[in-house]
Amino acid sequence: MLSRIGVHTSVDVLFPPSVLRDALSDVEPTVEIVETAADLDECDALVTFSYDESFLDADLDWIHSIQSGVDRFPFDRLERRGIALTSSTGIHGDSVGETVVGYMLQFARRLHVHRDNERRREWQFPPWDAPFTLPGESLCVVGLGTLGQGIARRADALGVDVVGVKRTPTPVEHISRVYTPGELQEAIADVRFVAVAVPLTDRTEGSIGADEFGVMREDAYLLNVSRGGVVDDSALLDALRDDELAGAALDVFETEPLPDRSEFWERENVIVTPHAAAANREYYRRVGALVRENVRRLDANETLANHVV
Prior knowledge:
By secondary structure, the protein is of the alpha/beta class. Helices cover 30% and strands 16% of the residues.
């Protein structure tokens, strides 16, 4: 039985800690906002955005990450200390899916260019052969978990032919063909859009690089809503400079926040968003629902939802 759940102040990157605390006011354990290592002393569970070494020294039984990605947590050390780790995977399919479709619509309808022209008060009709519409275009979604399926569902509804890449080539709704990771280059070679939606692991780190950009169409766009380390940013810039790609929409980067000096800021054919594809005013409610369910499971001695280690 849990007695005290801490809501770490680091969650304020995505929402105020107080709204999650209040959303969990009906659970049996006491829920309080915590900030310092000393605040953790009486906690046996913690909901957090960041990871800190002090978490290992506290007497915690369970840590819940409010993000889907948990690559910053030391799995082996948590397991040795007997601390369970759960993630918020599965709650972002709609928000990330809509973000990616937004990227596609911006590129197709040149909305990003019109917005830039608006700031300069420039009235410019686009080149006759630049705008296009999405029906009949093609998309490869790399990674067909919750995020990838959310992207595929929305793109399919707009008339886009969607293929995908995942480890087991079993059929997936809204995907016309499923490739394995070993067939990645074949999968992305003849599509207009490539959306990357895989978690960052040893297997996926740097998996989208110069070789992959080399096989993509020159009129193709890369859309990255996974983690920054999955895409080789230097190789992507080289491909953009050499006109090997038409453009890129990037929500994540190898270095975050994106440095002021980054060339990505300067390129008209690049859309930059601040790791915000999952942003949603309902975010805290969805995290709260996961936490509440896992409190119930712990009380019932059941397997935790979204259990990582």
